[in-house]
Amino acid sequence: MRLVFAPLLVLAACGAANGDGAGERQAPAAAAANAARSAPAAPATPAPATSPPAGAAGCGPRAPESPCQIVGTWRVIKVYNPGNQDPLEDEMGMVGSSLTVTGNSDASGAIRWDGPDNGQFDHSDVCTGPYLSPAAAPRPAAARATLATALKAWGVAGDAGKARHLGCDEGHWAVPSDASGKWFGLVLPMGRRMAFEWFDKRMVLAERIG
Question: Does the global pTM surpass 0.85?
Answer without folding.
Answer: no
